[in-house]
Write a structure and sequence with these properties.
The protein contains 4 helices and 6 strands. Helices cover 29% and strands 20% of the residues. The protein is α/β, with parallel strands linked by helices. Helix 2 (56-69) links the parallel strand 2 and strand 3 (76-78). The chain has helices at 27-41, 56-69, 88-95, 112-120; strands at residues 2-8, 49-52, 76-78, 103-108, 133-138, 150-155.
């Protein structure tokens, strides 16, 4: 059995003139990411591997989530391929994950995440919200073999406020 936890980066700021990759989280994002991490802490088995896009907003979201989950920040692995908006690179990263990992957590971007949860999960989600958490479980022994999974949890910050 394989389980993936997908997290869209929290709300980012457009306040500064920065290239997209460098945009930070705004105040709402800085509040929502730890709120979500604290909420899911009691609802999941901790991931064995945590990957994130190396974009500032995704990396910061990951760090805030991990703090609430009690996972040391040194466990976070950054991967530039997750700075993906279509989903093909995200798909390749996930499907190439080592099969010794049964629970994988990935922090990334839309539209890649919305594509992915609708392609592989069984719950139609029109748009994965910022800071939202999605868990999908697969009856597969290898990440390369995953296909139709079961969406076991989808929660967004608005549900917790």
């Amino acid at each position: 059995m394989k389980t993936i936890y997908l997290v869209r980066h929290a709300k980012s700021s457009w306040e500064y003139e920065l290239e997209d990759h460098q945009r930070p989280l705004n105040d709402r994002g800085l509040h929502d990411a730890p709120l979500m991490g604290a909420y899911i802490r009691e609802r999941i088995e901790l991931p064995q591997l945590v990957l994130s896009s190396d974009a500032v907003r995704a990396k910061t979201t990951a760090m805030l989530y991990l703090k609430e989950l009690g996972i040391p920040e040194e466990e976070l692995k950054l991967d530039n391929r997750l700075y993906d908006f279509g989903g093909t690179k995200l798909d390749k990263v996930i499907k190439s994950c080592d099969d010794s990992v049964d629970r994988l957590m990935v922090f990334g971007h839309n539209n890649a995440l919305t594509y992915w949860v609708n392609r592989y999960g069984n719950l139609e989600i029109e748009n994965v919200s910022t800071a939202a958490f999605t868990a999908i479980q697969f009856k597969a022994k290898s990440w390369s073999d995953i296909s139709n999974g079961k969406t076991i949890l989808y929660v967004k910050p608005k549900q917790l406020k």
